[in-house]
Amino acid sequence: MSFRITGLSPTPFRHLFGLSDEELARHRARRYVADEKPGYPDRIELRDAEPGETLILVNYIHQPAENPYRASHAIFVLEGAGAAYDRINEIPEAMRLRQISLRAFDTADLMVDADIVDGRETEHVIERLYSDPRVTYLHAHYAKRGCYAARIDRAEKV
Question: Per-domain residue ranges for the chain?
């Protein structure tokens, strides 16, 4: 079974890049400087920031559904991040290093299943969740802090 993992588009966050700390605060956001790796997982390029790189911590609506599963949480985005991560059958290292919560949603954006997995074993749980025909897409979250990590869709055979 093939799957596609995508990071967030940088477009909704670009207006925050380069703002002063005071201006960020008006957007309910905050700048951090990575001081260790791993430690600051970016949701655009789906990689841990290198020490010295800056990130913006911002609240993000990762599940915009108009139902009880609508959800938002704080995420890090790399300041100045370029293109969103978009790969087929590849788990980014930032997800491999962490325990991952996978949440399966149907066409009505209702959660129909979920599991927690060691990041090194993610493919097996993706395959199991997608064996359920009700599952339309998956959300991956970093289990420890519960933050949204990435979206996982079915992909065409490669």
Answer: 3-154
